[in-house]
Design goal:
Length: 158
């Protein structure tokens, strides 16, 4: 999908679809998306920003919406989750823009949420940063791999 052939209306519609899909995935997987090992399958969708940078902000907003509706950890988690989504999606786009192999996208999907989210969760939950970072990085391994597989399946079709 070339941004030149992507009208404003299509960008808005596509962004809305991605936000809705992210939120629905989070809703149906919230049982294991918010535990000690946060396996957030929806974060696999961060890989879609490699297809078009149009999705960078919507993916952050999707995280904001899901944390608002289902998170329960307060304003830091809501705003922080949005920023993590934007930062992670931006790094995914940068990896693709630099022409790197798709498998490098695993790194920001694991390390973005895995190293940034514990910044506020550690003082919110009174749990050491290192413990949270390790458990969140472990939980992001499956979504990161799924993200690359999703990208490989969709990049020529969208």
């Amino acid at each position: 999908m070339s941004n030149k052939n992507f009208s404003s209306t299509k960008k808005i519609a596509f962004s809305g679809l991605v936000i809705a899909l992210y939120t629905v995935i989070m809703y149906f997987t919230q049982g294991f998306s918010f535990g000690q090992y946060q396996i957030r399958l929806a974060t696999a969708m961060y890989s879609l920003s490699a297809i078009t940078p149009v999705l960078i902000v919507p993916l952050g907003l999707a995280n904001l919406i899901s944390n608002t509706i289902m998170g329960g950890m307060g304003i830091y988690d809501i705003i922080g989750g949005c920023l993590v989504g934007i930062i992670t999606s931006s790094i995914v786009y940068a990896i693709k823009r630099l022409g790197m192999n798709d498998w490098f996208i695993i790194l920001p999907i694991i390390l973005g949420p895995g190293l940034l989210v514990p910044i506020w969760l550690s003082f919110t939950l009174n749990v050491p940063y290192t413990v949270l970072a390790i458990s969140l990085c472990i939980g992001q391994i499956i979504p990161a791999i799924l993200g690359v597989i999703l990208l490989k399946q969709l990049k020529d079709k969208i």
